[in-house]
Amino acid sequence: MNFQEVLDKRYSVRNFEDTPLESEKLASILEAARIAPTAGNKQPQRILVVRKPEELEKIDLCTPCRYGAPTVLIVCYDKTVCWVRPFDGENSGQVDDSIVGTYIMLKAESLGVGSVWVMKFDPAKTVEQFKLPENIVPVAMLVLGYATKDAEPAERHSQRFPIEQMLL
Ligand SMILES: Cc1cc2nc3c(=O)[nH]c(=O)nc-3n(C[C@H](O)[C@H](O)[C@H](O)COP(=O)(O)O)c2cc1C
User: Fold this and answer.
1) In testing the pocket of ligand 1, which one of 6, 9, 11, 12 has its CB within 8 Å of the most ligand atoms?
2) Where are the domains of the chain?
3) Looking at the whole model, is its pTM more than 0.70?
4) CATH architecture of the domain with range 3-166
5) 42 φ, ψ (degrees, to nearest 5)
6) How confident is the model over 102-161, as pLDDT tens digits?
7) Which atom of ligand 1 is nearest to the CA of 11?
């Protein structure tokens, strides 16, 4: 698949088979997350890989959006490691993790693995269930796996504004 095909084919999968994700594919996806650019190259991304059934049950306590997937990556950042903008003290964690999550989705697609980015999770519950230390901030759950045969993109997948509306 060339890069344009990866971009064109990716959509938010919301119906997954329970077929496990192969360890080699997971490793390639994590490698993509590792090489993503981060502000000041501080590399604050921290990722919890959730695959065991009892851990997936904990995911379901935190979000309604696992959609039956067998693998969830909780993409977090370490707030003690992020780059901090000197003018206003804003840290780069959310932005860094957004790039990492995008790399994950696109790498997954290139391997024929479906994904959906999930922001609709309860962060406090996630911290509690997965015993995340105080310095670790969860930003997204990247839900990964194989789409069911009848899975289809939601209607809004193809509803993008024209480029004129995007440009200021
Ligand atoms: C920051 C962000 C948060 C999202 N959160 C959720 C979510 O919690 N649950 C969900 O089902 N989809 C979620 N999505 C998926 C979007 O709804 C989806 O990307 C959008 O509707 C466009 O559809 P497409 O991904 O199929 O192109 C999220 C996407 C982004 C980028």
Assistant:
1) 12
2) 3-166
3) yes
4) 3-Layer(aba) Sandwich (3.40)
5) -75, -20
6) 999 999 999 999 999 999 999 999 999 999 999 999 999 999 999 999 999 999 999 999
7) 26
